[in-house]
Amino acid sequence: MARPANTVNDTVALYKMLKAEWDRPNHNLEKCETFLSKLKIYLTKLAFLPIQSPDESSKMELIVARDILEIGALHSIESKDNHAFERYLAQLKCYYFDYSSDLPESVYKYQLLGLNLLCLLSQNRVSEFHTELELLPMKEIQSNVYIRHPVSLEQYLMEGSYNKIFLSKENVPSKYYTYFIDLLLDTIRVDIGGCIEKAYDRISEVEAARLLFFEPGKPNLAEYAARRKWDLSAKHEYTFRKRTKEQLATSKMMPAQNIALQVLDYARELEMIV
User: Fold this and answer.
1) What is the pTM of this model?
2) Which site in 73, 89, 140, 262 is 20 to 30 Å from 202, CA atoms measured?
3) What residue segments make up the domains of the chain, in order of their start?
């Protein structure tokens, strides 16, 4: 069904204002947000929902709607709004997959799909990461720089090669990846901090910085330790208030030597079977 011409024209005019502001090197996020809020209402009046065999005018509307949603997704990253980013990506998927044969491919398609993968990874939503990955062509998974980057990071996570993840921050395919990598690094540090609290009674400031991939002497480690309620002694050693007396008693009661011997016995038996 045809939309009123003035509705389409108003939407396109407002979209051009949004794009002009967004393309400025120092664009105003609040101004872009104002445009996006208005355009969300306009989009409900256009052919932005999946339709079969769109005609030329509908294709134009779909391209405009897709461009608006892409700017919205990137805007949400700059605004550090994960929920808004996920909402924009949920809407963009119909353009990227349902209309793949009807519309010219967007230059932002794989960048945003890669960012979506990285967003899931940063929240430790690994099963959803693999579900989204299965939607992509194998060729793009293997060769597209925007997809290969989060795939490599997921592999490093599975390997426990955290140092490679920290180094990857210096080699991102887009500036927008930095935000989600920082979130991923925070998630990794939470896991490492939990392991440190269980493995040590106390740990030196230098060793803690090394394990957490912080530069020694920088305020990042002190901020991290304060969040986890670690206490720094005069000897520059951290102790952990989270380690209760019950936890300490349990760790001392754990028969580590017996467990190690049992594991070695299992390994020998497996070797004999093989």
Assistant:
1) 0.80
2) 262
3) 5-110+154-244
